[in-house]
Write a structure and sequence with these properties.
By secondary structure, the protein is an alpha+beta fold. It has one domain: L-fuculose-1-phosphate Aldolase (3-Layer(aba) Sandwich), CATH 3.40.225.10. It is built from five helices and nine strands, in the order H-E-E-E-E-H-E-H-E-E-H-E-E-H. A nine-stranded mixed sheet has the order 4-3-2-1-5-9-8-7-6, sandwiched between helices. Helix 2 packs parallel to helix 4 and helix 3 packs across helix 5. The longest helix is centred in the C-terminal third of the chain and has 19 residues. The structure holds zinc ion (ZN). The site of zinc ion has 5 residues, from loops.
Length: 211
Amino acid sequence: MSRSFDEMDPRRALAEIARDFHARGWMAGTAGNLSARDHTDPNSFWITASGQAKGRLDEADFLRLGLNHDDVIERGREGIKPSAETSIHRAIYRLFPEARACLHVHSVDASLAAARAGAAAQSLPLPPLEMIKGLGIWEENPRVALTLFSNWLHVPTIATDIETRFRAAPPPVPALMIHHHGTTVWGGSLQEAYNRVEIVEFLMSYLARGG
Ligand SMILES: [Zn+2]
């Protein structure tokens, strides 16, 4: 059996996860971005480089960034730039000190599910399926919702919205959705975040099909 993602170098683990998510249609082309905190310096994180095909990443396609500044600490190779959506990852790590990984994907089903709630909807009620236990909800007929955000071309505006709303009211599940865009999920380990992406996308598929 292969090692768990958390025993691997985060760059290798994230490249493997990107290939997996690409194969499922959640990271088509260069879409989506993945990050994980550094094993030795938790005030920094590794993130996918901008504009790279997500089915073909290798360990050099990552940069290490600080949580509280824009400087690049390490660069896998010359010429690469951090993901254009880095500010969302930084917001999640600042909001949730326990988050060790943050995974953002663009799926058809999540966009359809949010659209069904209406473009102005601020939250998306999740179906009370057994699978929701994977998001830490252990209730009979749970009534929880995924927080929805507006999509802005200027990504730091989305990140500011996330920090503002979640500081005022923490989200009920470790995930969020940006309208017409995709989901962002975080976890206390890379494996946990990976599992949660699968759960959230399962719930989004159910809703997209009219559930
Ligand atoms: Zn995105």
